[in-house]
Every structure is written in structure tokens, then in C-alpha cells.
């Protein structure tokens, strides 16, 4: 019976083959072992993390929790305070902007009333033509006053003389003097305001038109969609008044 050579042991060959060519079952077992090993490592790390407060007394844990709660509450209150301050600043800015807009509007209105700026708008053109007799200063002054009462916002004679609150009429050779400047017939008066109301203020019974016609003049009234008044008055310089302290 022939003998098996020492280097050809069948059991050793099978063991070597099992490691060099692993079966499917061995591969599955290897994967399961790897998964179990990973889970073990994660569990150990989690246990170490939980051990941070493992030796802390319950009262100390409560104190730590209270401290964290207090910090969060202070942060919340600070956020509320800052949001309230932000809203207050926005309200202050809005109020300041509204006050500034109102002040600018008042300045514009006062400049228009004082005749310090050019203006345009709907209104009338009134042309007064003398015949043989001169119209009286009183008739022209009444015309201007009635228009002001009716809401005239700006008036100009002969495209050159802006009327103001202190304007004055005087008789002069060859015409009528307005604020030191000579006016000659025909007198042209441009007025900005509501055309219908202004016309009514001129044409009512015993009103300005009737008075001018009694002086012998003819009066033509024309509605104008956009009256252009370009002349301006000089701003008066106060002689005695000064700004108060703190202004």
C-alpha cells in the first residue's frame, strides 16, 4: 500500500483551501462579525459620553439645568428688548419723517402765499380794459381782495408783478402804480385757484366786475387750465425781530 508523502497531508490541504478560498457562509459570518464589532465600538463611545454626568449628584444636575434655563431666559428677554427698541426706532423715524414732510409742505405753502416762488395751476385770466375814464384804485383793490377771499393762491399783474399780502395800489400819471411799478390799460390779472369759485367771486351782484364796469371799463374773464406765474417777490428782512433762544 503506497504511503502519502509528508508534504501532502489531506487534512492540512483542506484547511489551507478553506482559508484561501472562503465559502459563501464564511463570508456572511465575517460580515456579521464586522457589524457586531462596529456596534460594540459605538456603544462604548456612547457609554463614555453618558458617563460625563454619571457621577454628578441630582441636586447638582438640577442646578446645571436651572443655570441653562436662566441663560436661555435672559437671552430671550434680551431679544425681546432689542426687538422693542428696533420697533421704537422705526416709529421714531416714521414720526420724524412725517414731521419733516409736514414742515416742508408748510414751507412750500408759505412760500407760495408770500409770492417767493414761481407757481402754476388752473385758474383765470382777467383782462380789464379802460375806455375814456380811469378805473379807480378802490375797484382794483376790491377785485384783488374778493379773489383772495375766494381762495386765490397766487396772483400776478401784467406777467411781471407778483401780488403779496403787503401789495398796494396808488394813482399815477398814465395809469395805476402797483408796488412802485406803473400799470397801464389793459390790466391783465392772472389768478391761480378754483376757476368756478374765482369767477363767482368776481361776477356776483354788486361785485368787482360790476364796479369796474361802473368805472367805464370792460372786463373779460377766461378760464385757463394751466396759469403760469413766474414773477416773485423779495423776502422781507425783519428789522427788529430775532429768533428766540434755542431756535
TrEMBL record:
Keywords: Coiled coil, Membrane, Transmembrane, Transmembrane helix
GO cellular component term of the entry, any: plasma membrane
Residues spanning the membrane: 27-44
Coiled-coil residue spans: 65-106
Similarity comment: family membership: Belongs to the UPF0749 family.
Protein name per its UniProtKB record: DUF881 domain-containing protein
Amino acid at each position: 500500500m503506497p504511503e502519502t508523502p509528508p508534504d501532502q497531508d489531506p487534512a492540512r490541504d483542506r484547511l489551507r483551501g478553506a482559508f484561501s478560498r472562503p465559502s459563501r457562509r464564511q463570508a456572511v459570518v465575517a460580515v456579521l462579525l464586522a457589524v457586531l464589532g462596529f456596534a460594540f465600538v459605538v456603544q462604548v463611545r456612547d457609554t463614555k459620553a453618558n458617563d460625563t454626568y454619571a457621577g454628578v449628584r441630582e441636586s447638582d444636575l438640577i442646578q446645571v439645568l436651572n443655570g441653562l434655563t436662566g441663560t436661555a431666559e435672559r437671552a430671550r428677554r434680551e431679544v425681546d428688548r432689542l426687538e422693542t427698541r428696533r420697533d421704537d426706532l422705526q416709529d421714531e423715524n416714521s414720526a420724524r419723517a412725517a414731521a419733516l414732510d409736514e414742515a416742508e409742505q408748510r414751507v412750500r405753502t408759505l412760500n407760495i402765499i408770500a409770492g417767493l416762488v414761481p407757481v402754476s395751476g388752473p385758474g383765470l385770466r382777467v383782462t380789464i380794459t379802460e375806455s375814456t375814464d380811469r378805473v379807480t384804485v378802490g375797484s382794483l383793490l376790491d377785485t384783488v381782495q374778493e379773489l383772495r377771499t375766494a381762495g386765490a393762491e397766487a396772483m400776478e399783474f401784467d406777467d411781471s408783478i407778483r401780488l403779496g399780502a403787503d401789495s398796494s395800489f396808488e394813482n399815477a400819471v398814465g395809469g395805476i402804480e402797483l408796488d412802485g411799478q406803473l400799470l397801464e390799460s389793459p390790466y391783465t390779472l392772472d389768478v391761480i385757484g378754483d376757476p368756478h369759485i374765482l369767477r363767482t367771486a368776481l361776477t356776483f351782484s354788486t361785485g368787482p366786475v360790476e364796479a369796474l364796469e361802473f368805472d367805464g371799463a370792460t372786463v373779460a374773464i377766461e378760464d385757463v387750465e394751466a396759469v403760469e406765474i413766474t414773477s416773485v417777490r423779495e423776502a422781507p428782512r425783519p428789522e427788529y425781530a430775532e429768533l428766540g433762544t434755542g431756535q
